[in-house]
Amino acid sequence: LKEIFQLPFILHKTILTYGMGESMVAERIEEWENNLPNYIKLAYLPSYGRLRLRLSAKGTDELKLKEGIESEVAKLAKIIPDIIVGFEDNETIEVVVGKLLTNKKQTLATAESCTGGNIAKKITSIAGSSIYFVGSIVAYHASVKINELDVDRELITKYSVVSSQVAEAMAKGIQQKFNTSYAIATTGNAGPTVDNTDKTVGTVFIAIATPTTVFSEEFFFGKPREKVIERASNKALELLRKEILKN
């Protein structure tokens, strides 16, 4: 039958992106997508905080398909280099960050409030992460932020626990406590209730401490609680990746 009917080859290539929603990515790559060869199709595969772009090529000439996909991937990499973090489904953001830290012989610690240890869980799911990941403190209650991370009580009173000031103090505190190159800190309202802050449910402050500075950014991740936690975790790792690449 194979001699009578030549079955087509079907090849796939998946590009992993973080930090930008499907509609915004589609707008940026519209011209490239419209000019794809007719034997290559693009699929958008979104999930919390990330978007996979899967190219599928179908035809009878396997070499042509391989070369066609690689050519289009190279073009795409020039259009959205700021959000591409890897290729294939197993190249997650935590894998990418781990490789960067390992190659640079640098270390990381996390101080998590609203993400409840989810960032540390992602990092330690990678075999060999003990090379670069020192540890984490889940500072869920204000007393833990104060007693374990040296966050000034007056800072919390003045700005509330859900603030850029507290997030940055948490990041500096865990970085100094564990003596690491980098640190991530999160604080926010994952919901479903506002609790004792005035911040909207879905609001998260993420702080990154680097070898030379500390900064934070405010995000709104919507609802429900699980989505907020997952999106905040992915965004924190994405911010860290960008900082490592700068240094």
UniProtKB/TrEMBL annotation:
Keywords: Hydrolase
Entries under SUPFAM superfamilies matching the protein: CinA-like (SSF142433)
Regions crossing the membrane: none
Entries under Gene3D superfamilies matching the protein: CinA-like
GO molecular function, one term: ADP-ribose diphosphatase activity
Keyword ATP-binding recorded: no
Family matches, as InterPro entries: CinA, CinA-like_C, CinA_C, CinA_KH
Domain CinA KH: 12-84
Domain CinA C-terminal residues, every copy: 91-243
Name of the protein in question: ADP-ribose pyrophosphatase of COG1058 family / Nicotinamide-nucleotide amidase
Organism: hydrothermal vent metagenome
Phylogenetic classification of the source organism: unclassified sequences, metagenomes, ecological metagenomes
